[in-house]
Design goal:
The protein is 29% helix and 32% strand. By secondary structure, it is an alpha+beta fold. The chain folds into two domains: 11-98, predicted glycosyltransferase like domains (Thrombin, subunit H), CATH 2.40.10.220; 106-162, no CATH class.
């Protein structure tokens, strides 16, 4: 397998290990999400972990070193699918850039906005039901937060009923 070094992180001279300079347009946020890399006519799928992300791309880790094509898609568990370009790979880590970073899955975006509005209006049960409907509970952090909110709401209601 040929290793592709990141184009946006040139090597710098220095003693010992190679140094890298961060030149991304937007800082990536550390996350831990499940996903699938899709490629080819039959959409061959490779399970992966999304390590960090921004509106422009992601750092992905695959279970094994894999020679991926330059063009592929990333399907986020419980979320949208993005067309992307492999910018670099090193071992089992892959840096991808979205082809249309500003494009969002409009149906999923509408659902996210509705959930956010429900939370803003204090309708925790409705928001949690919507999260279940769109499978966002594939995300353990969302699941724990929603369960805690539902539990706290029920407990508060029971305490108010007792007064």
């Amino acid at each position: 397998m040929v290793e592709h070094l990141p184009r946006d992180m040139p090597e710098l001279p220095g003693p010992g290990a190679k140094s890298r300079v961060e030149k991304r347009r937007v800082k990536r946020q550390q996350v831990l999400k499940r996903g699938q890399l899709l490629y080819g006519f039959a959409d061959a799928a490779i399970d992966c972990l999304i390590i960090d992300e921004s509106s422009y791309g992601m750092l992905i880790e695959t279970p094994l070193m894999t020679d991926l094509p330059e063009r592929l898609r990333i399907r986020v568990a419980g979320g949208p699918t993005f067309d992307a370009v492999r910018r670099w790979s090193m071992g089992n880590k892959v840096g991808i850039e979205f082809l249309q970073p500003e494009r969002r899955d409009s149906a999923m975006l509408r659902k996210r906005i509705a959930i956010k509005l429900a939370l803003k209006n204090q309708n925790i049960r409705f928001a949690a039901a919507m999260l279940r409907e769109v499978d966002f509970f594939d995300d353990e952090d969302l699941r724990a937060a929603a369960e805690a909110a539902e539990s706290a709401t029920a407990w508060l209601g029971a305490l108010l009923d007792a007064v």
